[in-house]
Structure formats: structure tokens, C-alpha cells
Amino acid sequence: MQKILSLLLSIATAALLVTGTTAQAGTLYRVTLAQAPAQSVNIIRSTPWVCDGTECTTEGARSRPAHECIRLVRELGTAQTFTIDGEALAAEELAECNASAR
């Protein structure tokens, strides 16, 4: 009985890990920059950002949103907006991101 419970717990844990990883991989980040970057595709710490004018997006980000914002601003310039799955960073967070990147 103990072995069966242990096996079920292992299966449940594995399922949660796979589900959590899949959800994070599909997270959409979108930023509006003050100026368009020189290139339409920018790789920032192994994360591909695709830009169309001042609008850039990625689904490959693996860090917390604040860290992604800072890395992006350091490479591409001031962010006017930064959203994660449609939810915008608060004005204070965006200001902190832009200031931290300098």
C-alpha cells in the first residue's frame, strides 16, 4: 500500500511540474519602446524578441517580468509599456525598470 501511494504521489508531482513548465513557456511579453530598435529580431540572454517598429514581443522569457524588463531596456532602450499576458506593469514598476537599466 505504501509503494502505491508513493507511486501516485510521484505521478501527481510530475504532472504538476510538466503543467507548470508548459504554462510559463506560453507567457507572452509585449513592450512598446520609445524608439524602434535597429533590428527586427533581438536575442537578449537567449530570449528572442521580435520587433515591428516600437512594438516587441516574446514567448520565450524565463525570468521574472521585472528582470526581463530591465534586460530588454538595457539592450533596446526606454520602455513606454511592458505587459505580461495582457497585464501591464504598474507605472511605478515601469519607471523602476527604466531607471534600473541605466
Report on the structure:
The chain contains three helices and six strands. It is of the alpha+beta class and 102 residues long. The chain has one domain. The protein has a six-stranded antiparallel β-sheet, with helices on one face. α2 packs across α3. The chain is globular, with a radius of gyration of 18 Å.
Q: Please estimate the helix content.
A: 40-55%
Helix and strand pattern: HEEEEHEEH
Spatial order of strands in the largest sheet: 2-3-4-1-5-6
Number of domains: 1
Number of strands: 6
What is the percentage of strand-forming residues? Answer: 25-35%
Measure the end-to-end span: 59 Å
* Overall pLDDT confidence: 82
Secondary-structure content class: alpha+beta
Poorly predicted residue ranges: 5-10, 12-24
- Taking Cα atoms only, what radius of gyration do you get, to the nearest Å? 18 Å
* Number of H/I helices: 3
Major sheet characteristics:
6 strands, antiparallel
Shape: globular
